[in-house]
Write a structure and sequence with these properties.
With about 110 residues, the protein is mainly α. It has a single domain, classed as DNA Binding (I), subunit A (Orthogonal Bundle). The protein has 5 helices and 2 strands; from the N terminus they run H-H-E-E-H-H-H. The termini are far apart. The structure holds zinc ion (ZN). The site of zinc ion (ZN) has 8 residues, from helix 3.
Length: about 110
């Protein structure tokens, strides 16, 4: 993707995101919705705001472009768009994720 938004645009959208995070709409959203990516239940404290199309790719801080995400997903996704990230995830065999999950269970038993 060659489109690069200006510094001013990114600053403005990040400021808008901060405002949106304080809004009642967002509070309701995170209270009623799980992580957009993995479906884990979120508490208000755990929920992060993720831009489906990141600001650095020209995404805006509007209700249609922000979703609640857990910290792990937000960190893993970084500055990729949701579509790019989904593609990348699809490449990873589900068996790997299941195996990792299993290891976690074993560790807890010991
Ligand atoms: Zn998640």
């Amino acid at each position: 993707m060659s489109y690069e938004p200006t510094e001013e645009f990114q600053r403005a959208e990040k400021a808008k995101a901060r405002e949106l995070r304080k809004s009642r709409w967002w509070q309701n959203r995170i209270a009623s919705s799980p992580c957009y990516y993995c479906g884990v239940r979120l508490t208000a404290k755990e929920a992060t705001m993720d831009h489906i199309v990141p600001v650095c790719q020209g995404g805006t801080s509007t209700k249609g472009n922000v979703v609640p995400a857990c910290k792990a997903c937000n960190t893993a996704k970084k500055d990729r768009s949701a579509a790019e990230w989904a593609l990348e995830q699809a490449v990873q065999p589900l068996a790997v994720a299941a195996e990792l999950h299993h290891v976690g269970d074993d560790a807890q038993q010991q």
